């Protein structure tokens, strides 16, 4: 297993639309394991393949307190169910140090393949529902900062660019 490098906003590679996985084979299972290791090392609660510069539709998550409940979604599809919206303060491993409120549908159904290529469905709620939608956005090249005002987004961009220059 390996800890992969996480791309940071405003890296243009984060804007790539990920391609569907044709077959869940050993290559994809290795990617899943490396993504889980990367997410736990960060530490984070969700990671999309786009964030490690692999533009295929794979997401890993673990919202448990103990960090012992990995969730894997290959080719995830979210369907919005009837009901309202909820505000949640989101963060992102690709936008380190910044958090803000995002409004998303509260009731969704998720269909995906598991690490063996078996289809499954779930009706998540709370943080899980928020996180899946956040990760699915990554596969579309979208970031939570895209929901903020242009001014807030620009401020975050400038601060991160400065930090990235200092690191380089
Ligand atoms: C997505 O985000 C998420 O800024 C997962 O300095 C987060 O794992 C969805 C992290 C919240 C819904 C609600 C962020 C770690 C981790 C940071 C993460 C940081 C260190 C973010
Ligand atoms: Co994110």
Features:
single chain; 168 residues; binds cobalt (II) ion; two-stranded antiparallel sheet; 23% strand
Describe this structure in words.
This protein has helices at residues 26-41, 126-139, 150-167; strands spanning 46-48, 58-61, 71-80, 85-90, 100-105, 108-113, 119-122. It has 3 helices and 7 strands. It is an alpha+beta fold and 168 residues long. It is globular, with a radius of gyration of 16 Å. Helices cover 29% and strands 23% of the residues. 2-phenylethyl (2E)-3-(3,4-dihydroxyphenyl)prop-2-enoate (QAP) binds at residues 42, 44-46, 88, 90-93, 96-97, 130-131, 134.
Give the topology.
Blueprint: H1 26-41, E1 46-48, E2 58-61, E3 71-80, E4 85-90, E5 100-105, E6 108-113, E7 119-122, H2 126-139, H3 150-167
Antiparallel strand pairs: 1-2, 2-3, 3-6, 4-5, 6-7
Bound molecules: 2-phenylethyl (2E)-3-(3,4-dihydroxyphenyl)prop-2-enoate and cobalt (II) ion.
The main β sheet shows up as:
5 strands, antiparallel
Low-confidence stretches: none
Determine the number of helices (DSSP H or I, runs of at least 4 residues).
Answer: 3
- Based on DSSP secondary structure assignment, what is the total number of beta strands? 7
The end-to-end span amounts to 26 Å
Query: What is Rg?
Result: 16 Å
State the oligomer.
single chain
Strand order of the largest sheet: 1-2-3-6-7
Question: In a nutshell, what does this entry contain?
Answer:
The protein is of the alpha+beta class.
